[in-house]
Amino acid sequence: VLRISAFARPLTSAPILGIRIVVHELMGRQVDDVDAKVLQSRQFRRGGLGALQTAQDNLKLALAIPLEVKLVVERQDLDRLLNLELPRPPMTLDEAVELALSQRLGFAPDQDEVEDAKRGLNVAEDNMRTKLDVTLSAEAASKAKNRLSSIRALSADYTAQVDLDLPFDRMDETIALKRAIIAYQQKLRNLEQSRDELVLQLRLAWQQLQTYEKNIAIQKNSVTLAERRVENTQLLFEGGRIEIRELLDSQDDLSSAKTALTSALVNHRICWLTLLYHLGNPEVDAESFWSKGLEM
Questions:
Q1: What is the pTM of this model?
Q2: Contacts from 259-264 at CB under 8 Å and sequence distance 24+?
Q3: What is the DSSP code string of 208-220?
Q4: Which of 60, 90, 91, 251 sits CB 3.0–4.6 Å from 95 for a disulfide?
Q5: Are 279 and 103 in contact (CB under 8 A)?
Q6: Virtual CA dihedral for 174, 175, 180, 182, nearest 10 degrees?
């Protein structure tokens, strides 16, 4: 009834037969547009449900959960995320790098390997030095076999031995030293590579966090503008000044803006958790495998 009245108002002065023909043509084209939008929405919904099912299956595989277990998506979590204040790091990037290098557990084994290689190198270098071993021994007897106080020290036998090993023929030690040097340098390179990778990952997460924060502000403005456009096009459509296609396009733009805002919020949350991981946080409870840093 609204559609007929909206498109019939400009045609009140035309003949009745002409009104019927024009209204029929307009309504037919508008109905086709609505049907096309409905089909597109159904196709988009099926694609979204398929992507959701795939994401849930991947999560089950990652958590070693049977695929038969049903996962339920809580709408309240998304609403809480929309109303949540965005978290911000309470430090600079340089401070975050120092914190990550000191707390990241994955970085500690590389440091231990370097220290082990350094100790092996010190041992190999000691084996290349001149060796001087001095051995002193004494042998004395007592008159009584069960008394130490009567030991005759003056008549004891004293022995002194000196072993000097000069570094002339050290082929095996030289080979061991070269291997120790190579192992130490390799461990140093591994440590530097691990450090560079950690700093790069942390810097990338830091930049992405700032990018997503700005993107969220932009998408919020987009949603506000899209809602205002829907209100305006609704009034214009009810007044018969525009076709339903423009109203449907404005509603699609609003839906796309809300979807983009949700994606930006989710990406920001994932990036925040990634940043905590690179920083060596959060601390996870041993029983529940949960952390306060994961809460919203």
A1: 0.62
A2: 260/219, 260/222, 261/82, 261/216, 261/219, 261/220, 261/222, 261/223, 262/78, 262/82, 264/212, 264/215, 264/216, 264/219
A3: HHHHHHHHHHHHH
A4: 91
A5: yes
A6: 120
